[in-house]
TrEMBL record:
Entries under SUPFAM superfamilies matching the protein: Alkaline phosphatase-like
One Pfam family hit: Phosphodiest
Organism expressing this protein natively: Rhizorhabdus dicambivorans
Name the UniProt record assigns to this protein: Alkaline phosphatase family protein
Taxonomic superkingdom: Bacteria
Keywords: Signal
A GO molecular function held by the record: hydrolase activity
Signal sequence annotation: 1-18
UniProt keyword annotation of Zinc-finger present: no
Amino acid sequence: MRAALFIAAALWASCASARPVLMISIDGLRPADVIEAEQRGLRIPHLRRFVAEGAYASGVRGVLPTVTYPSHVTLVTGASPAKHGVVSNTTFDPMQINYGGWYWYATDIRVPTLWAAVTEAGKTAASLHWPVSVAASGVTWNIPQIWRSGHADDAKLVTALSTAGLVAELERATGEPYAAGIDESVESDERRGRFAAKLIALHKPDFMTAYLTSLDHEQHAHGPGSPEAHAALERIDAVIGGLVAAELAAHPDAAIAIVSDHGFEAIGRETNFFRAFMDAGLIRLDAKGAVTGWDAMPWPSGGSAAIVLARPDDKALAARVADLLAAMQADPANGIAAVADRAGIARMGGNPEASFFVNMVPDAAVAGAFGGATAPLHAVPKYMGTHGYFPEVGNLRATFMIMGQGLPKGRALGEIDMRAIAPTIAAMAGVRLTKAEVPPVAEIAATR
């Protein structure tokens, strides 16, 4: 049945008349914050419009791990991290030399994207601040997300990596400088919203992605459902109103989608796996606390951690690490809910470089910073909320809503798979994603 739906939707997409599509991501948006906005005291009329006038999922089951960068690549490819290649936010850095570098570069994406599919069909595509979009193939007008230090030179880096002349053009048109890539404040989201609206007005792209980040920032800092998070979401709602108005002015027949990458858990404790691995002799340091060698290395993702072995085929090493993780899991103070092996990781579409994947209990997180020789095993986290847990965790469900001419109104879609979103958007745009792993959402893809 699933195969039949996929074939039918693919055939429809190949012959249907295309419509413009705008896809806006609100990092960390929990679906119930929109669906149950009134009960939660949230004043978000523009987002509520999608519930009344469009179709919406009760939840979106995400990918492993449920963090921003792997999820956003899934949102434009329809593939899992194991297939698309972006398996974490940060790149693997066992020697701690990459200054906290992230997967900024689209050259790491190993499957076709929506941007490329659209431009290969002779249309135009735009993107503003989307994760993993530096040098993205097929983006006609691109301002990627990237930062390094927060120094003023970061603005030069963004300008250099954007479509030639685009930042300057939009700065002239808006009368203000573009927001710094490292700045996750709601004020910067509002500025990016004005830039995105102006890009739409000036260039009228057939397909556009735009990304807003301040809700995630506030939920990390103050917890999901906090007054600070609600205040940010209400201001983001006004940004959404401006983007919807700009898109419909440029393309009255457009389909507009709101997506997110993950939900959130409130946390109160964290465990430093680097500390445990150092104590077990699996990570070795010099007198200054720098890594000199390693046999097994944690790769943290908030509520989970991939464990990478220096010699993945070394059965004795794998057994040694398995024993350490089992001993850690047996102590409730460490907050380990589950440990997946390679077969379990493959079933979840997670990092193929990992030999183990550790999932934490809901109130516990994995320390993200290495911390060096003096790092404690347990600590109170600097954040009050996080994500990154295994995708079956209910509070990690993400958001999908879509509205436009001819689309269902007030239609509840139930729970969907995140990998279904990109092929659904492709169907709206009249293109195909050949490497998408699941069918599009039939009720949307079949709508002409």
